[in-house]
Amino acid sequence: MAPKAKATAKATAAPAEPAPAAAKAAPAAGGDLTSLDDMKKFIRKHEVKIDDMEEELRNEADSKAKKKLQNEIKKLQQDATYLKAQEGVKEAEAAAAKEAERAALAKKDDKKAAKKDDKKEVVAVVAETADASIAAEIDAALAAAGKDAAASKEAAVKRMEACAASTPFMLPRFAQLLPLFDNSKLGPVAARAARAIVEGVRPFGHGIASVVVPALLAGIEDKKWKVKAGCIELLVPCLEQMKHTPAQMAECLPQIVPMLAACALEVRAEIRTATGNVLREIGSLVASPEIKRLSQDLVTALAEPTNQKHTQNVLAKMGSATFLSLIDPASLALLMPVLLRGMRERDSASKKWSAQIFGATAMLVQDTDSIRPYLKSVVPALQEALTDPVQEVQREGAKAFGVLEQVLPDYSRQFNQPYLFGKLRNGQIGEQLGAALALAEVLLKMNKTLVPGLMTEIQLGACDEKANVRRGFLELLEALPHAMKMDFAGYIASLFPVMLMGITGDKDKDADAGLKAAVSLVARFGDLAPHLFMQGFEDVFAATLYADTAEERNRQQVVRDMTAKIL
Question: 184: buried, middle or exposed (CB in 10 Å: 19+, 13-18, 0-12)?
Fold first, then answer.
């Protein structure tokens, strides 16, 4: 039994050998490891123990002893206090790194702020009153060439900024600053000087429309993006100035907004941002309550022209709105580009709403002349609407021509009426139908004293020798009673026989314009005033009794047969 007892004693003593290490670790585990230094010290001591045991493992030959050492090493490596100390060190070091990064960023910000303060001190200028001699010196410096040209130009630009309040001398030289926007050194200085000149214009608004805006619009067309963006940004102080001169505002906005709509498609974000700022400024100027409620939607539609949904949504909102207030120039400036885009959409609803809204706004403009600048682009779109396959689009386009006759009769007589009568005479059947609808609306809105003269021309056109011309005017005669209603009653006696004589006997009733016109007229007025038709029936029967040729006799027979059916 003694040997077994000894073996047992050895077995129980063996695991007790590493006890000193465990005993050493135990106090540390219960110790205070809150500070970074304590954690690092504990980790170093613990790792020394692990290294010693690994060295002992490499030198041990007995397999059982090796296994024990491996287990002890594993325990030391997985010790909870050791692992917690490692995590604590990592967290502390990460926190210290972040703090250092924050400190570095703070130093950079301080340096930038200091630089800005230095720049501000450098930029600070003393106001100066310009005279002819100073203006001559500035001109000479801006025209300088050679090694010292850059310094001379910089000095001249700074002097222009100092003399910005001297409007009579600085405003004529404003355009010379714009090309400098692209210069890396002179650009910021030139931009400040240009803004100072615009903001310093006195009296308010003086020369903005005649000098500043044309120069900025030319600069917006520049290929250099810095020049383009800088010119767009200067439109904001221009608008502020023109608040005091509404007539200049109304003159300039039709030129500004279409160019901004084009700039919204630019690739450079700086240009698009500047464009959006100017459009929002124009939106803030809107006075019409109905347009003001939609100003943000209009600005969004203009600033994001590639998204058709914005245009369609704002048109739908305006199409369901009732316009009661007068439309100011700022409202027109936002509205017209969107309406024009809507007329060019494939969606028939957008076309219909655009033509309808144009007619409503044209009736409510504060000054009818404020709508003239837009007609150059809007009227061709309305002309296209007259040949649209959708009848509602045709009808709203025709009504818009009637509104233009009412609000701008001189423009209508000079441009619209010649175009419409030309299509009536020489156009294809689709163009003739659209022109007939539009002329019917024009005659409805026309000064009543002028209508009889045009009715005589229409009567002659319906009797023209050319079949195509007759068809066009007969289409107009078919549309007139629907538009003019009771106002047309006075012309029945003279025009009804013309309709009957225009009957061709075409199997397709829609192609027989004379028959369509006569049937439509009788359907509308036959019950109300049958006596106005009787003389016409008698005249047509009498006119078709004799003919010189067989072809003519056949045609007259067709007219009599159809007339008898109508009777």
Answer: exposed
